[in-house]
Amino acid sequence: MQPRISMITLGVRDLEQSIDFYENGLGFPRMESPPEVAFFTLNGTWLGLFGRESLAADAHVSAEGSGFNAFSLAHNVASEAEVDAVVQQAVDAGAALVKKPEKVFWGGYSGYFTDPDGHLWEVAHNPHFWVGPDDDDAQ
């Protein structure tokens, strides 16, 4: 298996609300897609939104579940000020603030929010490791 993630698909309770959050709130560019799913192009991968029940049925697993899912999605940015701005943008779009941005033990600066379905996102500035849109390693 090659070390890459082609797509991240999030199971959501309210597809239209989640589309609005990611497209209008966070500014993710939406791709053409059938009405029962939404796709957003990211930098080298895609984000998919699919009904929670339908995604669980497709994988043959239970749709029940709550609490911490044991993973987070991360978005690295170029500065501490950008961390503050992105976290605020998410909160303004309807995200719940989980951890206010602050300096962290590994030498960076980060904050956490959850999307309308409770998916955990970290926004971080890591002065030791930056992969951005102009970096050759971002592909």
TrEMBL record:
UniProt xrefs under CDD domains:
VOC_like
- Give the source's domain of life in one word: Bacteria
Q: Which InterPro entries match?
A: Glyas_Bleomycin-R_OHBP_Dase, Glyas_Fos-R_dOase_dom, VOC_core
Name the SUPFAM superfamilies on file.
Glyoxalase/Bleomycin resistance protein/Dihydroxybiphenyl dioxygenase
Signal peptide (from-to):
none
* Residue ranges annotated for the VOC domain, each copy included: 4-126
Q: Does the keyword Lyase apply?
A: yes
Tagged with keyword Iron-sulfur: no
Q: Name one Pfam family in it.
A: Glyoxalase
Example of a GO MF term = lyase activity
> Which keywords has UniProt assigned to this entry?
Lyase
The protein's name: Catechol 2,3-dioxygenase-like lactoylglutathione lyase family enzyme
Taxonomic path: Bacteria, Pseudomonadati, Pseudomonadota, Gammaproteobacteria, Chromatiales
